[in-house]
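INFO  loader      accepted 1 record
INFO  loader      residues=404
INFO  predictor   begin
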Amino acid sequence: MNPISTEPLTGPARYPLYGPDFAADPHAAYEQMRRAFGAFAPVELAPGIPATLVIGYFQARSILNDPLRFPADPRVWEQHVPASCPVRPMMEWRPNALRSGGTEHSRYRSANTASIDAIDQHELRALVEKVAADAVTGFGSTGRADLATQYAFPIAFRVLSSMLGCPDEIGARIADGMSRIFETTDAVRGNEILATAVADLVSLRRHHPADDVTSRLIGHPAGLSDEEMGHQIVTLYGAGIEPLTNLIVNTWWKILTDEEFSATLHSAESTIRDALDTVLYTDPPMANYCISYPRYDADVDGTLLPAHQPVVISMAACNNDPALTAGLPPEAFVGNRAHLSWSTGPHTCPARSHAYLIAETAITCLADAFPEMDLAVPADEVRWRPGPFHRALESLPVVFPATR
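INFO  predictor   done
INFO  writer      dumping tokens
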């Protein structure tokens, strides 16, 4: 066996996932880890916060489908992690499906699934089209835009807030708190902002129910408390704004920088849905997550994963594992949905169809509005945001023929 130390190591033995070097070229780092350690790499999520990064596709599937040995409850781990730790808000225990197991997981997940499944997909598409049209109107006459801040984020934010019945003022605070948590630079303050904002939303919908996800969660037979309600909303916003924004931006980045990829779209050899799956395979917006905390030392394929140390699934590395992809041509991944970007097992994403619809509609609307669009700067000047979990551009500046 190859035990991975529970102590943070120095130097190249434990890879830091939080700096600009990793953000600039994570796939090179994954390759280096694979050569050195195989399917399980010792990493740091933040200074002094060790974890095991799973970079083997088949090993990841095994772990994700084994909640008894790899539970999602971090409460033992977080006893030894200071509240000031920048990644703790993304990892700490919350009474929700993401951080629970057994009957509690079933209770939370059933409430979330029922509330999400009641969304009318036709109305959702119409909403995305309207929000996209508003965004295009806002910058179309200028001939240039930042697709991250002026298009993708407003769509993800406004659509999700509408689905949850969240007024703009509360939604803006939720988005601010969530952004601070994902960036891990001001996560403690972000957690405070987030907690206050979601409490205000729950209070509003308890007194004034409507036809939205929040109201349906409140009325579900699970009988969620105010505290539990708040944490369901945190999870929905966390899964909805940042990853969805990044999925839209990362797909446009590939369209603008990969000529062959773009040509297949323009010639109708592939669809926007195919483009989304290609990005989810190669550069998913949540690159490293799906965290579990084994109760006991766990042997997986001869490697010992330490008890109560985070086991983080690298969807980005697993999707590109040579054991899965060796010998396959690039076109084999067009329309292929065997990737792990929605996770798998009991914690698989319950809203994937909604996320696909929102991203596909947003990209289609932009392509129809501006069939001629280019990067406004050289590709090597576009920067990726540091952070152990997401794959996100700082901005995506573009130019196009201005509209009236």
